[in-house]
Amino acid sequence: MTTVLELAIGFVLVCVILSMVFCAVRLVRGPTAQDRVLALDTLWMCAMLLAVVLGLRFGSQVYFEAAMLIALTGFVSSIALAKFLLRGEIIE
Amino acid sequence: MKRWLPSPLSSLVLWLAWLLLNQSTEPAHLLLGAGLAWGIPLLTRRLQPHPLLRLARPWVLCRLLWMALVEIVRSCFNVSRIILFANPEGLNSQFIRVPLDLHDPHGLALLSCLINSTPGTVWVEILPDGHELALHVFDLHDEQWWIDTIKTRYEKPIIEIFEQGERP
Amino acid sequence: MNAAAELPLWAAVPVVALLVLGGAIVLIGALGLMRLPTFYQRIHGPAITVTLGAGCLLIASMIYFSVLQSRPVIHELIISVFILMTAPVVAMLIMRAAVYRDLRAGKRDTGAMSGDVYHLPSED
């Protein structure tokens, strides 16, 4: 059962990292600014999940604090960027 | 009571959050958490733009949250199926208008959180002309079905919870 | 990784199932973000990552540490509640910003005008 659990954790790690790659592709390619902000927000979320899964992988509770801080800063930065897109235009 | 403990509910939530963050039930943490839970609502009472929340029917809220959870899981699988197998050109993604009767700000906040948490629907805004909600639906088949679902399954319980006593 | 050896079978099965489901859902959400054609469709992709994907992984983490340390470790609940409260706000603000920007720029082919809710300023 241990190897199955290890395999599952490895699978999730690969999934999360692959989704981060997808988000990065959209971040670079995204035709409009709102696409990039959306990709950045999803990237924060994936980073948070990566911290949680790494905590499982190494059996350590320290990653919980990292995940929590990533979630907090991600929310604040996404809100700031979205608010800037909403009102921060020169042409208003 | 009212003066020294303005909002027992938020005090309780703060206390539980403090205990969860510290992961302990030692007397010291219990005491410090209780102090914070008492002080923070008292100090931030002036900052709150709306009158304090009064929950009329907690069990209706529980039932609503459970129903929303089931709906979230169900539409998660729907959206995954569409992303994986459907042809994206054939999707009918549209904005629709939903007339709303709800006016309580807390209720509107809860409704927007529930609708936005459900994959496949995104709340855009309440349109300035009239009290109508602009909603974006990922794959629209039947506009009336969405309007009926939101009105009966989400809005009616929320009106029951938050606007009890304000309505004739 | 030595710690996982002590996990009993009855706990390992749900943890593995939740991990695989959560990982797959996260991947599908990001895939939707990458391959759907317009912005208004792409915004629905990350919604499943945030709700079911994150939920499954956090519940798996809760079960894993609770069984491993034989005491309830449920502080992942804070992250879950925080995400459930904040992710809708972010989605709503980005959506509103996108609609306003498209209307302001006068773009017709982005999908902002579909469904007869929003019109270009000149058409009013």
Automatic annotation (TrEMBL), chain A:
The residue stretches assigned to a coiled coil in this entry are none
Q: What is this protein called?
A: K+/H+ antiporter subunit F
Q: Which UniProt keywords apply?
A: Antiport, Cell membrane, Ion transport, Membrane, Transmembrane, Transmembrane helix, Transport
PANTHER family the record matches: NA(+)/H(+) ANTIPORTER SUBUNIT F1, NA(+)_H(+) ANTIPORTER SUBUNIT F
Location in the cell: Cell membrane
As for membrane topology, the entry says: Multi-pass membrane protein
Q: Which Gene Ontology cellular component terms are annotated?
A: plasma membrane
Q: Residue span of the signal peptide, if any?
A: none
Task: Give the species.
Answer: Pseudothauera rhizosphaerae
Task: Give the transmembrane ranges.
Answer: 6-25, 37-56, 62-86
Q: So which domain of life are we looking at?
A: Bacteria
Family, according to the entry, reads as follows: Belongs to the CPA3 antiporters (TC 2.A.63) subunit F family.
State one Pfam family annotation: MrpF_PhaF
GO molecular function annotation? sodium:proton antiporter activity
From TrEMBL, chain B:
Major localization listed first in the record, in broad terms: membrane
**What is the official name of this protein in its record?**
Na+/H+ antiporter subunit E
InterPro entries in UniProt: Cation_antiport_E
Q: Which GO terms describe its molecular function?
A: monoatomic cation transmembrane transporter activity
Topology class, membrane: Multi-pass membrane protein
Q: From what organism does this protein derive? A: Pseudothauera rhizosphaerae
For the keyword Transmembrane helix, the answer is yes
* GO cellular component term, pick one: plasma membrane
What UniProt keywords are attached to this protein's entry? Cell membrane, Membrane, Transmembrane, Transmembrane helix
Question: Subcellular localization, per the record?
Answer: Cell membrane
The record's family statement is: Belongs to the CPA3 antiporters (TC 2.A.63) subunit E family.
NCBIfam families named among the record's database cross-references? PRK08965.1-4 (NF006520)
TrEMBL record, chain C:
Q: What is this protein called?
A: Cation:proton antiporter
- According to its UniProt record, what is one Pfam family this protein matches? PhaG_MnhG_YufB
Q: What are the protein's GO molecular function terms?
A: sodium:proton antiporter activity
What is the scientific name of the source organism?
Pseudothauera rhizosphaerae
Record field: transmembrane:
12-33, 45-65, 77-99
* Keyword ATP-binding applies: no
Q: Which UniProt keywords apply?
A: Membrane, Transmembrane, Transmembrane helix
Q: Which residues form a coiled coil?
A: none
InterPro entries in the cross-refs: PhaG_MnhG_YufB
Family annotation (PANTHER family): ANTIPORTER SUBUNIT MNHG2-RELATED
